[in-house]
Amino acid sequence: MTNDKMQSVLAEPRFRLLILFAVLLFIGLSLLIFKAFSSYQHTQEKTTQLQQHADAILYFDEVLTMSARMAAFTGKQYWEVRYHACVPKLDLALQNTLALFPDAQEALEATREANLNLIDLELQALRLASKGQLRQASEILFSPDYEKDKKIYSAGLTRLQEHITAYKNTIQNQIRRSTQLSLGVAALMFLFIVLVLVYILRLLDSRLKLEAMTSNLSRHFIQHSQENIESNIQWALQLLACQSRANHCYLLNCAPQNNTRCPIEWRFPAESPSLLSAIPALAEKCQAWLQSQRDHNGIWYWPDRKTSAENQTMQKTILKTLHSKTLLGASTARADGDKFMLVLASGRRNLKLGKADSDLLHTIIEIIMRAIENKNKENDLLRLATTDALTGIANRRHFSDQLRNELMRVQRTRQASALMMLDIDFFKHVNDSYGHTAGDAVLSHVALYAQTRLRQIDIIGRIGGEEFCVIVPNRDAENALIAAERLRLGIENEVIATDAGSIRITVSIGVTLLKSDDQLESAMKRVDAALYIAKNNGRNRIQLV
Ligand SMILES: Nc1nc2c(ncn2[C@@H]2O[C@H](COP(=O)(O)OP(=O)(O)OP(=O)(O)O)[C@@H](O)[C@H]2O)c(=O)[nH]1
Predict the structure, then answer these.
(1) How far, CA to CA in Å, does 365 sit from each of 31, 37, 230, 343, 369?
(2) I want to staple 137 with a disulfide (CB 3.0 to 4.6 A). Which of 72, 313, 470, 474 is the partner?
(3) Is residue 212 part of a domain?
(4) Candidates 431, 436, 508, 541: which one to mutate for ligand 1, based on the most atoms within 8 Å of Cβ?
(5) Which domain CATH number covers 354?
(6) pTM for this predicted structure
(7) What positions belong to coiled-coil segments (predicted)?
(8) Structural domain tally of the chain?
(9) What angle do CA 399, 405, 410 make, to 5 degrees?
(10) Is the domain of 186 the same as that of 300?
(11) What is the pLDDT of residues 362-421, one digit of tens each?
């Protein structure tokens, strides 16, 4: 993805919001993990320290007993000193244990009396030992009273150990549970972040695909739209329908009647019969709504719960008619008064295209509209280049092209075809008597009359001032003469109403059959000769050469 595209995509508020959301989630997740980790660390340290202090109590207790007894046995001062040195250490271990585990108080309280007795007896023994009375000192330390208090005190310490172990287990279980919970939440948040990122990537992907499709459409229309605009529009709608997961895609022209030179509508799929019948129904039911949309260059999404109850009912009916659940429309008004609406209809509740893609939808309409405009301009130019400005029939050049084509067809198929040349008799007199404007009206009238009386496949052109030529395909001489006579007679009987008054005219017609070895010039020369004979023979007649 190029930087430009990334920036243009990230410029959209929905993407920015999603990314902000993902970043906030990520920060939250990091904090949660950090908190869970540090609380685990702290509790681990606390329980380890507690265990160390508890072990220290046991150790120093043993050391005190052992030091007192060794002093009684050996009488050495070293053991007495050692005893006194251990006393504050035991006290400190007890205080530390109580600080970390206040519940230890209860267990220690139960051993208090026994402990005081023990200390008292041990101090007595130490005093005797220091005086050299070792036997008496040993007796005190091995006396039943000492053993009894020692047992009580040891049992208390064992209970304390058990309490601590239970406390440690409880607290570790708690911390394990809360760590598991934190990790679970973290995993969920992580999953959510991944989902958000996947969603963003999918949106980005679909946006990029849409942009690629739009530029592809644009390129295609620039290169090929003039060749077959109808099928190109059909193709564009199909592409759009596939891209947006719509079942149907319409391009409607909802401009006021007679204000457009563009086809009324295209639709995809074109052959859907239900749609063909639904379109007029849509137009009929939406009239009022379409009117209200006429000045609105926007995008709309049905069902729209924010609109009036009346509109909602209308939307429901139309959605039902179109067998759709969702309708997305984008309208664009043209300066020339045309109003185009691109409508996507889907049987699903969601279209892949959303309101955020409105710019692309408008671009697509714009591309199609430009193509239609260009096609119209091209048609105008083509009309100007091929038709006679006064009568609207083929001009001399276009007629000559058509005649060349017909000659090639005759050469290929060997079918009979005729050529007529028709000239108004004494037209100069018409001009002189009624004026040039009336003369123009007569020329237009003759062209229109001939055009309406001839067959669809016959081609008429104005090749000179008051001269017309007609290609009459698939006619032999007899039938060509019948057609020419019908024309001559019809014009003779016509009363042409002009501003200068009613005018009656006659025409002379030369007729010739096209030959397989004819060139344009030879065919024109022959038909001209036929007309010349008709004129020379008194006019208002037909002549075959
Ligand atoms: N009003 C009008 N007159 C035209 C136009 N083009 C040619 N003419 C006139 O058509 C007349 C042709 O006259 P001519 O060639 O003498 O032929 P004609 O009077 O029809 O006599 P015949 O053809 O011999 O019967 C001329 O007066 C031209 O000025 C046109 O576009 N409009």
Answers:
(1) 49, 57, 14, 11, 6
(2) 72
(3) no
(4) 431
(5) 3.30.450.80
(6) 0.53
(7) none
(8) 3
(9) 120
(10) no
(11) 788 788 777 777 777 887 888 888 999 999 999 999 999 999 999 999 999 988 899 999
